[in-house]
Sequence to fold (226 residues):
Amino acid sequence: GQQLNQSPQSMFIQEGEDVSMNCTSSSIFNTWLWYKQEPGEGPVLLIALYKAGELTSNGRLTAQFGITRKDSFLNISASIPSDVGIYFCAGQQMNFGNEKLTFGTGTRLTIIP
Amino acid sequence: DVKVTQSSRYLVKRTGEKVFLECVQDMDHENMFWYRQDPGLGLRLIYFSYDVKMKEKGDIPEGYSVSREKKERFSLILESASTNQTSMYLCASSSPGGAYEQYFGPGTRLTVT
Fold:
């Protein structure tokens, strides 16, 4: 099945730094979701986006639904140790009744002490 | 809060055994999904279900079957486990139409020896 392209694949940052990652596709999506997965756990939903251009925040996290509907962005401000994990984007394509999601390849975030 | 639970966090089975993975959600969601997650391959959809007794194949259904006898419960069955089915298995659920937000369980790490 299709996967979304996420970049970067991994990030090594210092505590307090801001983080940016993005997710791109050749197809149009009408919903974008961002998840975080910690080692040995299931993904946890962070932010959901439903409209092109939409900007949504959840604490220090901000995500945007790209205008072209083919991309999405996640920013984390002032990173802290508990931000460590793998961040996945997921999109739902514009097919009526299609409940399936397409997932990104993930961005692994490591915080250097 | 949506809660998705999986029957085991860790399982070790022998090649050829029949394996049952159980998933229960408490939010009255119609849709339920089974994924496997492997390093470098991301999340791959095995099967999903839109309703009780209804199932559809995902991207990698070979070697698996599913059962949905009650709305809240979705079971994944490995008819004859093989070593290439060693993986992290994730269950998810969602409401139909509109939101597409999938909520994941904690995962079952299955090792087949």
